[in-house]
Specification:
Shape: elongated
Structural class: mainly alpha
Distance between the termini: 64 Å
Helix content: over 70%
Radius of gyration: 39 Å
Strand order of the largest sheet: 3-2-1-4
Oligomer: single chain
Number of strands: 4
Number of helices: 13
């Protein structure tokens, strides 16, 4: 379908089907920017306690190492490792938890509840041809600009925040290491916050673009809208009645075709297949087939119409399972069907001679 023909807004049903397949507007940069902000916020809250705990643990480890007996024993080494890991987990745990929770919240806000159908493997998504088309389309220019913007804008914001502070370092000569650490930590936090804000702006713009492209891809043609309205505009009861009526008409046509068949191959009670060979096709054609009650009805109509009914259970089962109505028989059944037709023609010839 030509892209220029998609001028209609997507219907609610169309959106629901697309979402079920995992077709949603999602920006990894938006999620990444919010995760960065959450991580910085967690660091600002837990930073002083992390520094205090780290300093305490470091001093205790130095004291332990200064004692040769403890430093060389398995119990002493185990205590050192336990203290180091506990401090590390206490420092990283809250920050990692905040980042993980934020990532899940932002992902759910963009994608909603995950769809089981979207989790199924789809090899079309890794098709290199379609991937190349998406890469070389309008998305290429935007992704290139976004990549440059992420480096340029974020780097520029960080640079503008860093350069003015460089001139102040000269006046800080001679300050204590603790004061210098506090100053550098505060300055670094300011730079990181400004860079994170710039990244959030880029993520919002990226999400707006992805949402715009998603809406364009979801657009429908006028014919698609009409077909969907026709399909879903009627009640389930009416659709069910229509299907029953269609099945009844198809069965009536099939039973009418039995009267013109050359032969009916049957399993006495379970299967029946009606064949017609008029010379216009390469092999006999299946004009009717059925199982159980339908098979009995085919046999009854055939007997009423004077169509020969040949009992051949293996051939009847093979024809029923390997062919559909309107198809010619498969090549591997040519010989068996030819013997049946030859027998029918001989019997018909004898009846004509007898009469």
């Amino acid at each position: 379908m030509a892209r220029e023909d998609r001028t209609e807004k997507p219907t609610a049903k169309h959106r629901k089907r697309a979402r079920a397949k995992g077709q949603i507007a999602r920006s990894p940069d938006l999620g990444g920017s919010f995760v960065l902000v959450a991580g910085l916020f967690a660091i600002s809250l837990t930073g002083p306690s992390i520094v205090t705990a780290g300093g305490t643990t470091f001093r205790e480890m130095i004291a332990e190492i200064a004692n040769p007996t403890k430093a060389t024993s398995m119990a002493g080494l185990s205590t050192l490792m336990h203290d180091a890991l506990s401090t590390l987990l206490g420092a990283v745990g809250p920050i990692a938890g905040a980042c993980m929770a934020t990532g899940l919240i932002v992902g759910f806000a963009q994608a909603g509840r995950p769809s089981p159908q979207a989790l199924k493997p789809d090899f079309k998504r890794i098709n290199p041809v379609s991937g190349l088309k998406n890469l070389l389309g309008p998305n290429l220019v935007f992704e290139a600009v976004k990549a440059v913007a992420k480096v340029g804008v974020v780097g520029g914001v960080a640079g503008l925040a860093l350069v003015p502070g460089m001139t102040q370092l000269v006046s800080k000569v001679g300050i204590s290491p603790e004061a210098l650490g506090v100053m550098m930590g505060t300055r670094g936090a300011e730079i990181a916050q400004r860079a994170a804000f710039a990244y959030v702006v880029i993520g919002v713009i990226d999400y707006a673009w992805k949402r715009h492209r998603h809406e364009q891809q979801l657009k429908m043609t006028k014919q698609q809208v009409k077909d969907e309205a026709r399909q879903y505009g009627i009640s389930a009861e009416v659709r069910s009645a229509q299907r029953r009526r269609q099945m009844q008409l198809a069965r009536a046509r099939m039973m009418a075709a039995v009267r013109t068949a050359d032969v009916v191959v049957a399993n006495p009670t379970h299967f029946a297949v009606a064949l017609l060979y008029d010379g216009t096709r390469t092999a006999p054609e299946v004009v009717a087939k059925g199982q159980d009650l339908i098979a009995l009805q085919i046999r009854r109509i055939a007997e009423e119409s004077g169509v020969p009914v040949i009992t051949d259970p293996p051939l009847a089962r093979a024809l029923h399972s390997s062919t559909e109505i309107g198809q010619v028989i498969p090549e591997e059944l040519y010989a068996a069907v030819a013997r049946v037709l030859a027998f029918v023609y001989r019997m018909a010839g004898r009846r004509r001679l007898a009469s």
